[in-house]
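Bug: token stream looks shifted between consecutive jobs. Job 1:
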Amino acid sequence: MQAFTQLTGLAVPLDRANVDTDMIIPKQFLKSIKRSGFGPNLFDELRYLDEGQPDQDSSQRPINPDFVLNYPRYKGAKILLARDNFGCGSSREHAPWALLDFGISCVIAPSFADIFYNNCFKNGILPITLMDEQVDQLFEDTLAKEGFELTVDLEAGVIRGSSAGDIEFNIDSFRRHCLLNGLDDIGLTLEQSNSIKKYEQKRQQQAPWLFT
């Protein structure tokens, strides 16, 4: 997993609450356990004017010009501004995969669904919870200025770039450590590889018949 330390990029405002995981990545695209390839179908029902299918070439589909992620001014956005209860619905891990594959590596919202929130940290996405008025200010800043960028500094716990000044945020120390060091569950296990090898060697001496 790629480490997350500091990110500077365009912010795109998705002004709707209760965005569920089926809206983030519709169920018909959940046919792979690879973490890549889901970006073209992120928010599929909103981004396109037709209903997408798994084997369909997204580049040939008619785009919905009224959906915010399709606005030219937000092309290449890395930070998603959202509303309450983002990521609700089913627990599919494909939702953060789709965001990350699209280029979004930070989501800022007043609240998140618990499972989606946890899945973000396991896949290298930083979900930040702020107060409603702070999120409102970021929406206003983004809408007021084309090319508006934010800098998210995880190490310092600060968002820079808002017209209201720096915004501090808090992340659980363990999750912060994992993101800063690019550690998912496998990475955390591999940190204990020496202890695991020692245990295996000791166990083989104690019960050699288990290893024949």
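Job 2, same session, no restart:
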Amino acid sequence: MNHFDLLYKQECYKIIGLCMKIHNILGRGFSELVYQDALEIELVKEKIPFEREKTFAVQYEDETLRRKFKVDFLVFNCIILELKAVPFLSFVESFRQTLNYLKTSGIQLGLLINFGQDKLTFKRIIRSQ
């Protein structure tokens, strides 16, 4: 893969397209759970494999810590999807949260999507090896 190739390009294109559809229909202003419910409906309709509220344990040396991370969605078994519904996204905080999910899960790509603005916004977050 060269530096112009996007990781999981087609999968991301499909996910972002579904999120845009949801945003076009619902607009902004709903809680995060409403957008999660709508996305679950779309993922099922499109027969896209996903797990909602997938839990990952945190490893420390040979121990599993009590603290666990629950991601909004694991899609295609290779993309962590974190949804927000806020007018002003704290990118640093949300970026760190998503990066922690990537480190904990061993997954390489996360999508951070915000439904809380007039236009759907999203960021790709890649965990370096």
